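Entry 14. Structure prediction run on the chain below.
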Amino acid sequence: MRPFRTGARASLLSLATGALVLGAGCASTPEKKASPRPVASQAATPAPTPAQESASELFAEALAAYQAGELEDAEEGFEEVLEEDGESVTAQFNLGVIAERRGDADEAREAYEAALKMNPHHVPSLLNLGRQHRQREQFDAAIALYEEALRAPGHEHEVKLLNNLTVAYRLAGKYAQAEATAKRVLARTKDNADAYKNLSLVYYDQKQYRLAELVSINARKLDDKDPGVHNNLGMIYLKLGERPRALAQFQKAVQLDDAFAPGHLNIGAMALAFRDYAGAEREFTRVAALDPGSYEAHLYRGYALDGQKGRDPKKGLAAGESFEKALSLRKDFPPAVCGAGWAYAADKAGWDKAMTYLARCKDVGAASSAEKQQIDAKLKGLLAMKQSEAAKAAAPPPPPAAAATPQPAANPEPPAKKQ
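Output returned:
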């Protein structure tokens, strides 16, 4: 099992959170996102026109619908705001947030790009679009976006942009630039906990774990209520082989914020590593609910369910569905393709899908000739079982057995009499 890394979280709308996920083997290291939130108000004008007043009322109604979890009504409301006020960058931005909540990354990205066409300096849209690039591992695109935004007059020292630029540099492996950018933030705002968190992860990625621990402790002193700080310490303690301390930090993170997805992701990963499949399923199900667009949540939930299919074949079908959800978010991702194949093979209701995915796995996921041989053997076995089931279904039913005619006993005894 390989470690699975994610980005560093800052505050409010759009920044990502650091998480180390141990568990199902995974070939890449995209970052884990925090659930985005909508901008809660529009920019006021000194003397609003009737159209602006109408747009403001629609905006308030749409925001209330979002807060009530009525995403379709909220989306319709913000679209109506744009019909009334075509320059409402906040309404356009919030459409991107809603798309992310639905797990539609492409639509979200288009919404943020549209918002930036309205206002190229809209920081929330810059942050969320940059995070979209990072999640797609388009680190150079994220860096270019942040660097251009920071060159704009008045934005040279925008802390949120600088913190996100640090994350992008780190994920791109540009550690010197990442360290320099984090220190640039601390030179102006020495008590910035997010900069310390980012700097800690820069050292973490370079395997300087004790230095990373020291910097994380400084961050904890500044903000002990930030779940991201505890999460990062948990990552470090895992690398130092101090699993009980790591688990305690992850648990502290979710105690502080039960909606903190990276903490649940890491607790689930530790459960998965110890083959506590039911516990892992519970944690990954929570992450998938918090962040439907997280392909790794669905991938790891699939592994947790797959671990239980020996006792309950229906868990295999559920695992296959979870792997398919991961594939809807990350097309042709080999671990999900192969996972779906082996999971669906657990129950005859999934044999057809199992054969399809295993054939694909042989092309995109099998790393060795031995693995390909295992797949070939499984495919032959599934085909044989399917043919056997088909033969049973096609065979005529056996004729009904003839009813036996009852025969009297040769020497019936008289009935007993009561005395």
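The beta strands are 3-5, 20-22.
Filed with the rest of this week's runs.
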